[in-house]
Structure formats: C-alpha cells, structure tokens
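Standup notes
- DV: blocked on the single-chain target, sequence here:
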Amino acid sequence: MKHRLIWKLLLVNILPVIAIVVLVVWIAIDQLAADYFMTLMNKYDVSPTETHQMFLAAIHRYLVWASIAGFGLALLLSYLLIRRVLRPLSQMSVISRDYAAGHFGERVQITSADEVGQLGFAFNSMADNLERLEMLRKTMVADVAHELRTPLTNLRGYHEALSDGVIPPNKETFRMLQKEILRLVHLVEDLGQLARADAAKAYLDRREMNLRQAIQQMLNLYRPKFEAKSIELETRFMPGSEVVNADEDKLLQAIRNLIENCWKYTVEGGRVVIVAEKMDTVVKVSFANTGPGISSDDLPYVFERFYRADRSRSRDVGGAGIGLSIVKELIEAHGGKVGAESSTGQTLFWFSLPG
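- DV (later): unblocked, structure below
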C-alpha cells in the first residue's frame, strides 16, 4: 500500500509541476531570444538566422539536461519526504494486523504534529483503549469463573460430605447450602441487571419524578443496615433539585446501588452525606462517605465491569464489581454523567441528570 501511494503522490505532484515549468521556460526563452537577437542583429547589421538557431539549440540542450537533473533531484527529495510523512500510515497498516490477532503491544512512532501525526496519536489512543478493554475482558472472564467456582465448589463439597455421612443433615448444614445458593442467585441477578442496564437507553420510560422521595425511599430500605454500623446519615436538597425527568425504576436502581456502596465501605460509626443541587441545566447528586479512600491508580476504573480495587476482598464484602457499572450504564442512558472522587478518609460518587 505504501509504495503504490507514494508513487501516486510523486507522479501527481512532480511530473505536472516539472513539465509545466520546463514548458513555460522553453516558450519564454524562444520568445525572448527571438526578440533579443532581432534587436541585436539589426543594430550590428548581422544576419540573425544562423546565430539565433545556434543560440536556441544550445539553450534547449542545457534546458533539457537541467530539467532532467531537476526532475531527478525533485523526485529523490520528494520520495524521501513523502516516505517520511507516510511512515505512520505504513506502521498502522502493519500494527493493525497485530491488533486483529489480539496483540495490542505495538504503537505508532509519531514524528510530526501535522494531520498524519494527529492520526497516529489517535491510533495510539485507540490502541490503549483496546488493550485496556481486552485486559478488562480477560479479568471479567476470570472473575466470573471465580465467582461461580467458589460457591459451586462449596456446594459440591457439602453434597459429597452429606452423601458420605461426614457431616449431619442438620439446620446449620442446610443454612450454609442456602447461603452458597444465594451467592449464585445474586451473581446471576447482578449479571441480569447489567444486561438490562446496557439496553436501558432503548427502553426508558421518562416521567417527572420526585428525586427527594426516591432517595428517601432507598434510605428507608437500608436504614437498619446503617443503624447496625452506627452510621450517621445526612441529606441536603438544594432549591430546584427535587424534581427530575427520568425512568423511575431505573433511577431507583442506580440510587440503590450507590447507597449500598456507601453502606459497604463506610467505617463503623462513620458518616454518609447525600447532597442534591441544581447546577445550570443539570441536577447533580453526590454520595459521600467516610472510610478508606480509593487510590488514584484505581479511581479511573471504579465504574468498569467486575473491577475491584482490592482484589483480595471476597464477594461477600466487595461484591462482584458490577454495581457501579450498572449505575454508569443507567445514568448515561438518561444522558447524564457519573464520576468519583476520593481523598484520605472520604470517598464521593456523583451522578448528574439533565434538569
């Protein structure tokens, strides 16, 4: 591709320019030489015909050789320059084959800031995103396998122990079996919610709803859990922030996931503050809780699927890493945005919706 393109550019740019220049100079010399020699020969009473023809032949000969030399030099310089300009395109062609095979390690070498350089920069940014998504995909598969393997292994172990009479079939045993089954059920429900969140944009039933009532409804649902950890709750609703146009069921799901996140990661005796405020054309709701902060390395990925900042946490404590992904999908389906901030001792998640 590179060689075909480079020769096309050379032929389009070099040949017409050289041909036009030679033609213009040739005609100009013929016309000017004729006028000059006629004037000169008349002045000195010399026949201009033979001398004129000798002069034109010499000029034409030198012009042809100069044109050949100029064409060769222009061809060489243009070839080197165009090849340098097209080098990122050639690299993209080769590297894209590696990407198609699933290898995302190579990057385009950017040597200029022109349009081709900007294309190379965009290509590298795309490669970074593809590599990150591929890593997340592999991590997601591994996480799903782990989340399924742990309860299934436990169920298998209990079943074999019951069959062999190693453990008695009492209430405690069946309670542990039920716990493992519920873990599987919750994981399947989380995956179902994520799938529905992906399709939320096509099935939104937007209506005017009271945001204060929606948040209070979810807080009342989780209040016993907050009280069990002695967590202090505070809500503030600024003027103009109580009413939004949204799909009530889907927004309630997003709010529920954020409140549950606050409950999980707020330290014993900590504090949760929920603030809703009107900002220009959007309503922003923030959920701040005291507790261990999120590192700056992990913060950009907290809304990714199956992402957990602390890989050592069990699912009972840290969840499957789907809740915030569902929030992101549901809010963006409404045309809103999500974000996260963290500092020592406090974490804040927020979402904004068109007002």
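- Follow-up: The chain has eight helices and seven strands.
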